């Protein structure tokens, strides 16, 4: 008996390739050193890192999801200037700003093994080199709603030993797991530490 061949859209195929990669093993994450641990959070020091970043206009964080993530996956799966597939990594990071702008960004960490990352074809994407720095980090699990992310951010902010050290005009929502992982999910709220 012959089985039918799946002929989905390119974005569906990108999503399926990403699922296959995610199921194959652990994904690379940015390296860091723990500077200090407290009850409920830690301070981490990160080296300079490179990210692929998608600018999103006219949507809230709650309205973003699979289509935006699929665009990032497209880049990883070869929809870039060189057509080369890159290693799957994590986390996927949303930057949440408290400023007036309606523009959002969602980013995916790029492995340092990719020495010269290809430029994206998508005009809403860019390569971003994040400088070395320190972050206040709170880790929690589950499928987080907008309200839960905000609650975790506020909890982290309230626990900081010295709130004056925190950049409070924005924070990051970092998700480490694929959507099909049902238990043991890892999410982190990141607040930048002033230099």
List the defining traits of the structure above.
single chain, 195 residues, 9 strands, alpha+beta, nine-stranded antiparallel β-sheet, globular
Oligomeric assembly? single chain
Helix content: 10-25%
By DSSP, the count of extended strands is 9
For the largest beta-sheet, the strand count, sense and barrel status come to: 9 strands, antiparallel
Apparent shape: globular
The tally of helices reads 3
SSE series: HEEEHEEEEHEE
Give the CA-CA distance, first to last residue.
65 Å
Secondary structural class: alpha+beta
Regions with pLDDT < 50 over 5+ consecutive residues? 1-8
Sequence of strands across the biggest β-sheet: 1-2-7-9-8-4-5-3-6
Beta strand %: 25-35%
Q: How much is the radius of gyration in Å?
A: 17 Å
| Mean pLDDT metric | 85
Could you characterize what this model shows?
- There is one protein chain.
- By secondary structure, the chain is of the alpha+beta class.
- Helices cover 21% and strands 30% of the residues.
- It contains three helices and nine strands; from the N terminus they run αβββαββββαββ.
- It has helices at residues 10-24, 66-76, 146-159; strands spanning 33-38, 41-46, 49-56, 92-97, 104-110, 125-130, 133-140, 170-175, 187-192.
- A nine-stranded antiparallel β-sheet has the order 1-2-7-9-8-4-5-3-6, covered by helices on one side.
- Helix 1 (10-24) crosses helix 2 (66-76).
SSE inventory with pairings:
Blueprint: H1 10-24, E1 33-38, E2 41-46, E3 49-56, H2 66-76, E4 92-97, E5 104-110, E6 125-130, E7 133-140, H3 146-159, E8 170-175, E9 187-192
Antiparallel strand pairs: 1-2, 2-7, 3-5, 3-6, 4-5, 4-8, 7-9, 8-9
Helix pairs in contact: 1-2
